[in-house]
Amino acid sequence: MVKIYGAYRSRASRNYWLARELGIEVEEVPVIQAYRLPDANAKDAPLNTRSPDYLRVTPTGAIPAMDDDGFVLTESLAINLYLARKHGGALAPRGPKEEALMQQWALYGTTSIEPHALAILYAHAEGRAGTPEGKAAVEAAAETLRRPLAVLEAHFQAEGFLVGGRFTVADVNMAEVLRYAQAHPSLLAEFPAVETWLKACQARPAFQAMWAKRNAEPA
Fold first, then answer.
1. Torsion 150-155-160-162 (CA) sign
2. Which of 76, 82, 85, 67 is CA-nearest to residue 16?
3. What pLDDT, on the 0 to 100 scale, is given for residue 129?
4. Is residue 198 part of a domain?
5. How many angstroms separate the CA atoms of 82 and 71, rounded?
6. Which DSSP state fits 130?
């Protein structure tokens, strides 16, 4: 059985969502971020990103990590592409061209969108968004995001989904990247096709099941 190491309040959420979409059973191994613990090195500390037992799984110490019968893979988007390719079905690529497009969108999301969307999320989560400096940081990130969001807007207006005219792993990956930007709803409102697509992704039962588990986890 595939093992996923991580927490729902981490990028492992992407893998837990996809597993539900694929209808596959995975063993969830809870691993908490070390920064969330008062002493990650304490003898009674839960398994965390600094634990020797976890570092034996992946020396990067990052979550998530996947272990598929001894094959260990890190990076949440890569894990999702692997799982979709292995298990097939409508969410998987239909040939090398679709596979390349799915990789393209994953790379585009993680380089052009995620860092700026996270800057918005962190400003709100840390209570800085209401300060002059925080507002400036949010607007700077939003301005940077307008260009890639315009790319997605045109694509969704024409295609409906990222690849193949259907919901695939590419949409799971991009939806989870864009979720961070939902902390700034007025930005997404500028791109109605993106907003409609994202809401449809998040209305799926598999996302809702993952989200319920995430909300049940300690913040």
1. negative
2. 76
3. 86
4. yes
5. 11
6. T
For residues 83 and 102, state if they share a domain.
Answer: no
Nearest-CA neighbor of 112 among 88, 147, 70, 84? 147
Pick the closest to residue 124 from 186, 174, 176 (CA basis): 186
- Three-state secondary-structure class, residue 105: helix
Longest dimension (CA), the chain: 55
Which residue has better confidence, 135 or 149?
Answer: 149
Distance CA 138, CA 92 (A): 35
Domain of residue 44: give its range: 2-90
Q: Residues 6 or more apart from 61 whose CB is under 8 A from it? A: 34, 49, 50, 54, 55
Say which CATH number the domain at 50 has.
Answer: 3.40.30.10
Question: Side-chain half-sphere of 150: how many Cα atoms within 13 Å?
Answer: 6
Query: What does the pLDDT average to over 115-131?
Result: 93
* Pair 152, 82 in one domain: no
Q: Please tell me whether residues 54 and 104 are part of one structural domain.
A: no
pLDDT digits (tens, 9 = 90+) for 173-215: 999 999 999 999 999 999 999 999 999 999 999 999 999 999 9
Residue 190: the pLDDT is: 98
Dihedral (CA of 124, 128, 129, 134) sign: negative
Residue 13: CA atoms inside 13 Å, Cβ hemisphere, count?
Answer: 22
